[in-house]
Design brief:
Layout: E1 15-22, E2 29-32, E3 38-41, E4 58-61, E5 68-70, E6 84-87, E7 93-96, E8 99-101, E9 112-113, E10 117-121, E11 126-130, E12 141-144, E13 150-153, H1 160-163, E14 177-180, E15 194-197, E16 209-213, E17 217-221, E18 226-231, E19 236-242, E20 252-255, E21 266-270, E22 286-292, E23 295-301, E24 312-315, E25 321-324, E26 327-329, E27 332-334, E28 337-342, E29 347-353, E30 362-366, E31 372-376, E32 387-392, E33 403-406, E34 410-411, E35 416-422, E36 427-434, E37 437-439, E38 442-443, E39 447-450, E40 452-457, E41 460-464, E42 475-483, E43 492-496
Parallel strand pairs: 34-43
Antiparallel strand pairs: 1-32, 2-3, 2-37, 3-4, 4-5, 6-7, 7-10, 8-9, 10-11, 12-13, 13-14, 14-15, 16-17, 17-18, 18-19, 20-21, 21-22, 22-23, 24-25, 25-28, 26-27, 28-29, 30-31, 31-32, 33-35, 35-41, 36-39, 36-42, 37-38, 40-41, 42-43
Length: 497
Amino acid sequence: MDYMEGMGAVAGGDECAHVPYNSQILPVHAAMLHTGKLLYFSGSGNNNRNFPRKSMAARLWDPATGQIEAVPVHREQRDLFCAGHCFLPDGKLLVAGGTAGYPILFPYGFLSGIPDTFLFDPESGRWLKGSSMSEGRWYPTCAALPDGSALVLSGWRDHLPWKIVVPPFLMINRRVERWDPTAGPDSESETTGRWEDLKADHHSAYYPRLHVVPPGEVLKVGREPETFVFNLESRRWRRVATSRGGPRVYGTSVLLPLEPPDYDVRVMILGGAASEFLTGRATNSVEILRRDGTAYTWSDAPPMSFPRLHISATLLLDGRVLVTGGAREDNSNPVFETELFDPAKGTWRFGATCHVPRLYHSVSILLPDGRVWSGGGNPHPGDEELRIEIYTPGYTKDPDRPKIHESPRTIEYGQGFEIRFQSVARIIKAALLRPSSATHSFNADQRWVGLVFQLSEADRIRAISPPTSDQAPPGWYLLTLVDEQDRPAEAHWVHLS
């Protein structure tokens, strides 16, 4: 099939519309909680006038009612602007780093990071203070690991005076640290957990694109052309490939669906610009990394129709990738059209057209019913886009989409479990999706993991959870079924423990 097939058509019945209220604060960071609410926060939000307050401004949005509620600030207020975050097995959101101060001599860049750790507890709706890292991080990335711990990498250090006299590459925090949620807290912490320096120093541009893949490896792709793998057992890095398109500043990457029985690893990188210090012109190019044994190889993939940087790419319930927002260059000339990539066919098609520019500091988050929440946009300091848009795939309005009536709340690895459902068409896929946790053009947590299943009765499926945590790190997931017309069921929450 020619990859351009279908590009002239809009995905059937899809809509993108803004809601009649705003987000109240700039959603620089956002995450979908297993309680059904969406958390977003901004800290100082790229505005140095907000920094002295260190307000830890955060909101909870309820998709069912549209209600927005303020999250109480922690008594030890810190600026969580430009932190890294990922989910822990119990559903808490681990937030590492943030902003220690704004530059005095420079209008942009050269900010410093904090070593602080906070956890957001969805059950209580409040922040908890955790043990601090060994050094500050501004623009780090967190990744949930198969053993229930989490990795943090990169970010600018907290040694602000040095940043004025040394080259930029010396600003990066090279330490690789692991959060152990079972370790005891220090005297100032309110929750268990502690950071360990893995003694595996690695230089990486800030907000590296990290993907945890079987068997027990962490892939680093994207912004830099060089592709590295970190082995969690040996704690060693190795360079495995070089992408073909050069640097991808504020591009993004997506771990494409992991399908049984082999769970073949494919990672897609798309968009971005070659530079950020001068006005960067975006690219529309796309590449896919494939693994064959221990060898990784990049190859060109069909390009997007539009060049984009500050791009969002969201895995949908049906396994496709929705690309939204971005700019053709720097923070100007926004792209309103959306595009959908089908990993099974390797083809693109247009989605619905949105109406709000989504540039720097914008996010997109998958909702359990299959819609996608988009917010934010901050092209210049103090310039905040507060309008919210909802992307609605046509299948979410289809009365004949499958419906899950009953599923277990908790499952274990390799365990068979029953799903009771209703569908007028044959079910062809069952899947677990890890909930979104996004910031700065990257969704650190999202993954789509297919399940082996068979029909046991007309309205019952017997599915088997992933065999090991290498395919799906422990935690909360969205469980869905997809019929032969590619209509996914509204997801149910299930805890993989």
